[in-house]
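This section describes the prediction task in plain terms. A model, or a person checking by hand, is given the sequence of a single protein chain and must write out its three-dimensional structure as a string of tokens. No templates, partner chains or ligands are provided. The sample shown here is typical of the held-out split.
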Amino acid sequence: MKLLWNWLRRKVSDPRELEYGPPWQSKSVLASGLAAGAGALGVVGSSSPLLMGFGGSYLGGFVIGWCVRRFVKAAFVCAGVALLAIGFMKSTGWIAIDWAGVESWVHQTLQSLQSGAEGLKQVLMGYLPSAGAGSAGIFFGFRKK
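The expected answer:
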């Protein structure tokens, strides 16, 4: 218990806080996990389903945000490498690019991603009991390094 208390009292400016790590090292994940666990065990009485819903929604949102951040970072690295390779091959004359075709492909891909994001939003709103806690979890999960 003392270890948990010391961990929760740590300052945000602590250099250990800047380390990369899994999402379960975040204080907010620990707090929402405890709330969801207390709700699941029925410790709080009549507020148990509410606590379990809020805690579970925050946890789900946090993990989704954390995974999206990792995916976006990897996608940016891959896109940068691809653009450098295309630029190099174009400058050496190895390839010729049809910019009209590329523009139409990018436009179709962006429309597809937008419709997919709308579908994902509907799925998340259906599965996460608390949209507010899930949205906060996504926001803080995306910010977690």
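For orientation: The chain is about 75% helix and 0% strand.
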